[in-house]
Give the backbone structure.
Amino acid sequence: MMYSPTQYREERMDLIYEVIQNYSFATLITMTSEGPFVSHLPVLLDSAKKVLLSHCARGNPQWKHFKEGIPVTVIFNGPHAYISPAWYKPDPDNVPTWNYAAVHVKGTARIIEDFHDAYSVMNKLVQNYEDQYRTGWVLPAEPNETLKNDLNRGITVFEIAMDHVEAKFKLSQKQNSADRNSVIDNLSKSSGEQGSALAEYMKKVLTSGK
């Protein structure tokens, strides 16, 4: 569970999916007898099938947890930034805080054993990021035996069923509109790329009705 007061809970799936897609380098957690096991991996959303697609190195033992059916929690951290009380109208009760968007997905992972299916997932992952960075690199359309063996030895491809999705968008909802607008303005001016992205989320989330 994620601590999430009512005013910060987000249930609009279009906004939640946007965070997953735009901030897709995720944290994957499985619980073992020795405690939590954590990996940091790129994850691709398939919203039509309600699954997350990813892969890990064969040397990463977390894939064995997937095979054992251990539940997985996947955490996506969206834009976030420090919020100064100087951005509000003067009030002795004002304190510094942090605004952010976070999404937690809980589910079960299935290892994709079939090579052609695994290759298809890898191709989707590669093309997703190649398109973003406009570098033009592609996996071979017809994988040769060497590539097939390298993939089988080197990585494990899997999908995670999105059994439960929980989102928290803490975006100055408790402040009045004037102070919220001041936060948006100052984030855009003072907090770099991260602050500008957060300001855009604030405008989008706070101006559209739930």
User: Anything to note?
Assistant: The radius of gyration is 20 Å.
